[in-house]
Amino acid sequence: MWIIAIGGLLALAFLAIWFGFVPPPNAGTLIQIRKGTVRVTRGRLKPHAKEHVIEILSEVRVSRGFIAVTADNRVAFSRGIPSAVHQRLRNVLLNQWA
Questions:
Q1: What is d(CA 33, CA 63) in angstroms, rounded to the nearest whole number?
Q2: Backbone φ, ψ for residue 30 (5° rounding)
């Protein structure tokens, strides 16, 4: 019985991450958006990259959500960030160190 409960919780956690309700736990950089304010809560983000992220998010009026970058350069977005700007944000975040 415990195995089923644990398996169910693991499946629920996986789905919450997959559908963008919570950020992945292995994110090296985590950007939180709350009430239109962008804050880096984990990792680093260069100032010019942060300005670009703020500009892109304000264009589409995102007021809350998250952006997570993992060590293998995968970028995960919360459900509140429109897919139309995902690639622009990826470009800014992954090219900031180039």
A1: 6
A2: -130, 120
Amino acid letter, 40 = V
Query: What single letter denotes the amino acid at residue 56?
Result: I
| Helices and strands per DSSP (H, E), number in the chain | 3, 4
Helix (H) or strand (E) holding 27: strand 27-34
Beta strand 37-42 with 64-70 is unpaired
Note the pLDDT tens digit of each residue in 28-74.
Answer: 999 999 998 999 999 999 999 999 999 999 999 999 999 999 989 99
What is the distance between the alpha carbons of residues 50 and 44, in angstroms, rounded to a whole number? 10
Quote the pLDDT of residue 98: 61
93 burial via Cβ count (<10 Å: 0-12, 13-18, 19+): buried
DSSP three-state, residue 8: helix
Query: Two tokens at 9?
Result: 């919780």
